[in-house]
Amino acid sequence: MSFKVQVEKQLNIKTWNIILIDSLNEWWEDEHWKMQWKHSQGLEIYIQFLIDPMDASKIWEVIAKKELNNNEIISSLSMSKRKFDIKLKEFIYQIEEFRKNGKKT
Prior knowledge:
Blueprint: H1 3-13, E1 16-22, E2 29-37, E3 44-52, E4 55-65, E5 73-78, H2 84-101
Antiparallel strand pairs: 1-2, 2-3, 3-4, 4-5
């Protein structure tokens, strides 16, 4: 299962839905997802897939942000192979804490 599918599956479990898949057409971004929480149409976040600067064929990091053009990161997921499942759980946990508290923990 690809890492994007795993990220999407875990977000869907927490009732986040993808409402847009797009790209900034920048060398450093593969794509981004605009996500909406199922129980509040006003609650949206962005998931960005950033390209590895040393190998453009790989994703280096996945980040969650409240606004696409803002540098404030809600959560970040390093794409090194070690402990991906643990890092994914922490990534989702931080997004859920943001949802509950309305701010980064």
